[in-house]
């Protein structure tokens, strides 16, 4: 019943009020995915030129940067012009946020996203509302490839879920978003069983969440011989989906997993389609480069650093933004026939889970996101769990990190892991990198972690 109300009443009503025409953008993206690649590339170049032109004219940061590199958005070969620019680092974004924001926009007039991200680096980025609508539409396109359609209920395995404590937010959620949560900060047998029972009463549910959290949930169901009704879709995101984990999820639910990759800073970067043969790059909205350590594009089949130019965010243009992940491009075409090119795989995101005394798991990514967004003055945080009650926090502090921040940080750990948790905070100038160049933000050394058994 709610399915019908949602699809035929709530959706049309909400979309009529949507000034940015998100549904229209979604249908347009469905069509464009079918265009031949050369046509998509030509349109991408036009959008790239328009974005570089906008940034050159309206952002103090890029005026300086373009001039220093001798780059003009009027260049004949706009892609070569782009490649002459230095990459934009997280450090650049943190230190020059105001100069990156376009003339006529302010932090207050834009949508803010604060991210812990896969690297454990706190970062605030801003984007305009039209860009937000475009990002939502791109996510909906990816959802639809997975089997979602407007009006279906969603079960999200996610950290720090929102509460629907006003009538308006409750009504919106009940009839439109239709979200139910399993909080990945609190995955216990009790919460997982309750989520399972609620999900069983919601036919056609779409499961959505951190890849490893969905795996943990599937493993729990299997272990307790709980047989779920097959979901309409399973969408995994936010961290690398390990193949053995995918196999378990598909076995338990009897539904194909659709994996996708993106980040707060630029939105959806790439997504599997129903064929699951690599991830289609979202070149409608992004210009994606995969580069070696010297900044040259890697050939197909070779791993490289993912560098993204956002073609939609006019509020705070991000040009050649180094996301901090590794991926492998391919020149294979997808058997689905869509023109959007493929990323063979993302290789750079593996999150470690932390463990509580009672054996329940805490997603490291959620713990990091929570502390970075709640506690003032943390630039980077790495959690190393040496023993069940012993945590070593390697912390890169901003000048605003003080006694109160430290108290709050300790309180977060006591709340999550119990009063016995011993927390040692070590200030470090930077978090040590892995040989791959990635940061590992959460390391669990307690034996028999899910990571060891995966
Ligand atoms: Zn495809």
Could you characterize the architecture of this molecule?
This protein is α/β, with parallel strands linked by helices and 454 residues long. The chain has a domain at 353-453: ANL, C-terminal domain (GMP Synthetase, Chain A, domain 3, 2-Layer Sandwich), CATH 3.30.300.30. It has 15 helices and 19 strands. The strands form four sheets. It has an eleven-stranded mixed beta sheet with strand order 4-3-5-6-7-8-9-13-12-11-10, with helices on both faces. The chain has a four-stranded mixed beta sheet with strand order 18-17-16-19, covered by helices on one side. Helix 2 crosses helix 8 (129-146) and helix 3 packs across helix 4. The model is unreliable at 449-454 (pLDDT under 50). Bound molecules: zinc ion. Zinc ion binds next to loops.
């Amino acid at each position: 019943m709610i399915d019908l109300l949602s699809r035929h009443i709530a959706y049309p009503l909400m979309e009529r009020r949507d000034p940015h025409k998100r549904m229209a953008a979604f249908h347009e993206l469905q069509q464009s995915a079918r265009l031949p690649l050369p046509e998509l590339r030509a349109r991408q170049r036009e959008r790239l030129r328009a974005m570089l032109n906008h940034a050159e004219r309206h952002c103090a940061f890029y005026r300086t940067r373009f001039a220093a590199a001798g780059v003009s958005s009027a260049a004949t070969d706009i892609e070569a012009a782009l490649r002459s620019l230095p990459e934009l680092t997280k450090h650049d974004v943190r230190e020059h946020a105001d100069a990156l924001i376009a003339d006529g926009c302010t932090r207050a007039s834009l949508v803010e996203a604060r991210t812990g991200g896969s690297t454990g680096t706190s970062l605030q980025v801003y984007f305009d509302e039209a860009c937000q609508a475009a990002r939502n539409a791109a996510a909906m396109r990816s959802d639809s490839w997975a089997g979602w359609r407007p009006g279906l209920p969603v079960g999200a395995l996610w950290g720090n879920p929102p509460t629907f404590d006003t009538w308006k937010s409750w009504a919106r959620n009940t009839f439109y978003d239709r979200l139910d949560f399993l909080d990945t900060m609190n995955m216990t047998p009790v919460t997982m069983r309750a989520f399972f029972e609620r999900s069983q009463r919601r036919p056609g549910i779409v499961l959505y969440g951190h890849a490893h959290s969905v795996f943990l949930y599937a493993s729990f169901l299997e272990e307790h011989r709980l047989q779920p009704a097959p979901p309409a879709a399973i969408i995994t995101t936010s961290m690398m989906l390990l193949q053995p984990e995918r196999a378990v999820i598909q076995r338990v639910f009897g539904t194909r997993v659709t994996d996708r990759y993106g980040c707060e800073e630029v939105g959806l970067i790439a997504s599997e389609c129903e064929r699951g043969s690599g991830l289609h790059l979202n070149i409608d909205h992004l210009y994606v480069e995969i580069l070696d350590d010297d900044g040259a594009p890697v050939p197909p089949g070779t791993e490289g650093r993912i560098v993204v130019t956002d073609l939609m965010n006019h509020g705070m243009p991000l040009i050649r933004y180094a996301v901090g992940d590794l991926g492998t491009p391919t020149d294979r075409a997808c058997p689905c026939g869509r023109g959007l090119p493929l990323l063979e795989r993302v290789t750079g995101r593996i999150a470690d889970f932390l463990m509580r005394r009672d054996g329940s798991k805490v997603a490291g990514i959620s713990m990091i996101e929570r502390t970075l967004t709640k506690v003032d003055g943390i630039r980077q945080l790495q959690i190393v769990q040496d023993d069940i009650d012993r945590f070593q926090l390697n912390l890169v502090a901003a000048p605003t990190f003080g006694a109160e921040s430290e108290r709050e940080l300790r309180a977060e750990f006591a709340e999550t892991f119990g009063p016995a948790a011993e927390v040692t905070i070590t200030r470090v100038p930077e978090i040590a990198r892995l040989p791959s160049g990635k940061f590992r933000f959460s390391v669990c050394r307690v034996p028999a972690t899910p990571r060891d058994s995966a």
